[in-house]
Amino acid sequence: MTKKTKKRFIAGAKCPSCQKLDTLMLYFENNVEKLACVSCDYKETQTNDEVKAATKTPGDVIGVFKPE
Fold it and tell me: Tens digits of per-residue pLDDT, 10-30?
């Protein structure tokens, strides 16, 4: 039995390789985020360093709300 991968297209995104619009899809494979173009077979994988940079620590404060 094969596990079906859920793929989502990114509306308005342009492929960095073939420059076509609305051909990029985003999906997860083995808990790794991947990007692929259905037109030119362009593929990109997010590295562990990029994942760490995008993840915030729980102590990060965005703003403080002070009701009056």
Answer: 999 999 999 999 999 999 888
Tokens of 45: 């994988």
- CA distance between the termini of the chain: 59
Domain boundaries, the chain: 7-54
Going by C-alpha positions, the residue among 7, 45, 6 that lies closest to residue 24 is 7
DSSP H helical segments within 1-68, as ranges? Answer: 48-54
Q: How confident is the model at residue 63, as a pLDDT?
A: 61
Q: Which of 9, 12, 11 is nearest to 37 (CA)?
A: 9
Report yes or no on whether pTM surpasses 0.70: no
State how far the Cα of 61 lies from the Cα of 41, in Å rounded to an integer. 40
Across the strands, what pairs with 14?
A: 21
